[in-house]
Specification:
- It is a single chain.
- The protein is an alpha+beta fold.
- Among the domains are: about 1-10 and about 30-170, Creatine Kinase, Chain A, domain 2, CATH 3.30.590; about 260-350.
- It contains 14 helices and 10 strands.
- The strands form 2 sheets. It has an 8-stranded antiparallel beta sheet, covered by helices on one side. Strands 6-7 form a two-stranded antiparallel sheet.
- α8 (about 230-260) crosses α9 (about 260-275).
- The chain is globular.
- About 40% of the residues are buried.
Length: about 375
């Protein structure tokens, strides 16, 4: 399948209906592998990287999972096309900087992506909607097994799989989930949660991984340890912590509805007004406002059939996606105007928030207002345990 066809549609993993999809946007499992006796990509000369690519690429393209896949060399992708793939989390920012001797192979549904000659010879990842870490691991583990029958991976009996960065040695696995936690941000609990997660050996990063900002109240939680633990143990520990974060976000949403309804309504109402009527909007503002619209959908302020439009806008309003749609490079001001135009048109039939209905249902089902300091995961408590 030509790469342009892949870029013309969004991936199945984004905006889906997986388990806990209201809070967990996606799950991803990535494996790092290298060929035995070959220099790592960062040390290899151009001719060596090209030879390694020629060795690996046919084996990846021949996988049953890659039927109708798109396979493209990095030097054949424009800077804009690379950025689209970064925004869809199909390649890393580091891989986007690669040229000759590097490539990416993606399946039609964009749930499977294999980078060749990124930091390691192979960076293989599976993406799923919602909280589906085990399903993502099962998918990528199958690919790993199939490739290991054809390629000689660098492996040490004591250390495990050998990687370019020592932090990946062992399983070579990074598992992560992208969470949408606006209530924890609005209630000033997010820093406590991040610190608690970090203390038990997991990492919390922004929208595009290490060193990036958590735009749109989206955070990635992933394992840091790859040595000394089996894949199943890593996944079990990560799953347990993510479920606790989900519980804290749910409790924070209930507390906001019961104890700070005007604050919550103000944020959701303002987001509705700006999204529906603004004529210029930068990427950061759009993501943060769409986050509040998504929260409004989750809490019942909007009909459930309007959720899809909000989910799609998270991706469609990203800078590279805007320019891909217009088929030309746009200046910052032009992107901001186009972004607001797309949002207004997509949300022109969006109904106003059903404030009375939500507050009435909340009173009927809540009983006495909750004490925000007694709810699990609120300030003053250590929210996590391994």
């Amino acid at each position: 399948m030509p790469t342009r066809n892949i870029l013309s549609k969004g991936g199945d993993w984004f905006g889906g209906e997986g388990p806990h999809h209201q809070i967990v946007v996606s799950s991803r499992v990535r494996l790092a592998r290298n060929l035995s006796g070959k220099p790592f990509p960062g040390w290899a000369k151009k001719v060596e990287r090209s030879a390694i690519l020629d060795l690996i690429r046919p084996q990846v393209e021949g996988l049953p999972e890659m039927s109708e896949a798109s396979s493209v060399s990095c030097q054949d992708l424009s800077a804009l096309e690379k950025q689209v793939l970064v925004e869809r989390h199909l390649i890393s920012r580091e891989h986007a900087a690669k040229g000759l001797g590097s490539a990416v192979v993606m399946n039609r549904r964009q749930t499977l992506s294999i980078m060749i000659n990124e930091e390691d010879h192979l960076r293989m990842q599976a993406l799923r909607s919602g909280l589906q870490l085990r399903a993502a691991f099962k998918a990528i583990n199958k690919v790993d097994t199939e490739l290991e029958e054809k390629l000689d991976f660098a492996f040490d009996s004591k250390l495990g799989y050998l990687t370019a960065c020592p932090s990946n040695v062992g399983t070579g696995m990074r598992a992560s989930a992208m969470l949408h936690v606006p209530a924890l941000v609005l209630s000033d609990q997010i820093n406590q949660v991040v610190q608690a997660v970090n203390k038990i050996g997991l990492a919390v990063r922004g929208l595009y991984g290490e060193g990036t900002e958590a735009l749109g109240n989206l955070f990635q939680i992933s394992n840091q340890t790859t040595l000394g633990e089996r894949e199943e143990e890593i996944l079990e520990r990560l799953q347990k912590v993510i479920l606790q974060v989900i519980e804290h976000e749910q409790n924070a949403r209930k507390t906001l509805l019961q104890n700070r309804p005007n604050t919550l309504l103000d944020h959701i109402g303002r987001s509705y007004g700006i999204l529906r009527h603004a004529y210029s909007m930068n990427s950061k503002e759009a993501l943060n406002l769409l986050s509040l619209a998504k929260l409004g959908c989750d809490l019942g302020f909007y009909p459930d059939n309007q959720r899809r439009a909000v989910d799609e806008l998270f991706m469609e309003t990203q800078p590279a996606h805007l320019q891909k749609g217009s088929q030309k490079k746009l200046a910052t001001e032009e992107r901001d105007i186009l972004r607001s135009d797309i949002i207004r048109k997509k949300l022109e039939t969006f109904s106003a928030p059903d404030v009375d209905g939500v507050m009435r249902r909340g009173k009927e089902g809540s009983g006495a207002p909750a004490d925000p300091d007694s709810a699990p995961g609120t300030r003053g408590q250590a929210p996590f345990s391994e």
